[in-house]
Fold Phosphoglucosamine mutase.
Amino acid sequence: MGRLFGTDGVRGLANGDLTADLALRLSIAAAHVLAAESTGGGTRRPTAVVGRDPRASGEMLQAAVTAGLTSAGIDVLDVGVLPTPAVAYLTGLFDASLGVMISASHNPMPDNGIKIFAAGGHKLDDDVEAAIEAAIDGGVAPKLPTGAGIGRVRPVGDAAALYLQHLGTALTQPLDGLTVVVDCANGAASEVGPAAYRAAGATVIAISAEPDGLNINDGCGSTHLENLQKAVVEHGADLGLAHDGDADRCLAVDETGAVIDGDVIMAVLAVAMHESGELVDNTLVATVMSNLGLHLAMRAAGIDVVTAAVGDRYVLEELRTGGYSLGGEQSGHVVFPGFGTTGDGVLTGLRLLARMAQTGKSSSQLAATMTSLPQVLVNVRVEDKAAVAAATSVMAAVADAERVLGDAGRVLLRPSGTEQLVRVMVEAADLGVARKLADELAETVAAV
């Protein structure tokens, strides 16, 4: 078996790559690795928090995951349809040995995924993922309990209320007087997202908030902002917020309909936290994909930027290592370690709205905190992404492009974490220059 875990759990075509059988075996393996780790081999009855997004295949996969966990002697706390950050939070709140979120995030409905959290709601380290995969690959069936040793399943009826209460503790300012349009992607935040913003005092217009199992991320959410842009302008709203299928992301739209990406959101929130004294060591954690404009804006504000690899798990590693208080990605994953162990789109939206309420500034005025340099990204499908990225001809082409750009831009070429793609990204002060260099590099990559 090849490596199962990607940058964020195990993901694939539901009932194709990601079958009920795989979900069963994965959950049994995770139970044995993580339950033993959290209990220290003791006799305490381990528990697991299990949630999902509303896509249809989640019902099948949750049944398989629950069967695997209970067969391994784990009691399952079923929290139903909730965002990924809610499952992570509840894993810690209930002192569970592990948490499982069944979601493919922003991917189309036919896909699904299994995200596993360790005790405390933390993302898994690479060595733990390797141990789980080794347990699956070992081919030796673990000894399973019988009789009273089999795990039980308990629905947690107040799971959403507990998560909403938690979000309320992170709010820095009432949102009275603000009108927000929320695109819920017909996903996991369709109920708790609007409820959280209303509880904070905002007037909420919810769109794409009627999941039917089939319409998740379908022309809506953080990967399709057109409907949100239109709705914000039509309703004269102060801000638009877009979540993805499992609501660990948040992108925004200002009152004019212009997009506010994750970099801009981080810039706004970093300055706010810097002013309030919340920004530990005056440091923001971003990724290599963040726009050069973010670095320039933070430098002007007296804020340092630590750069991590792409993926919120790597942002989290840097946050934990440095003890920092804010980090995230251009895609809209924003992490507040003081309030959660993973990206939380609803929390991000609340904090962005709170900054508007605190300053009295419009969303477009706040977005002017940073100016993004033109950025061109080209995905090139290849046979062997690692070999292509390391090819001599490719490395020489990157060096040539960097010489052309000098200090006024940058080049990033990296293999995808989930597909056989090499991603070519070029930033420059001029869009035409960025596009020309990106296209030339993509041709070189494709020719290897």
The longest helix spans residues 20-39.
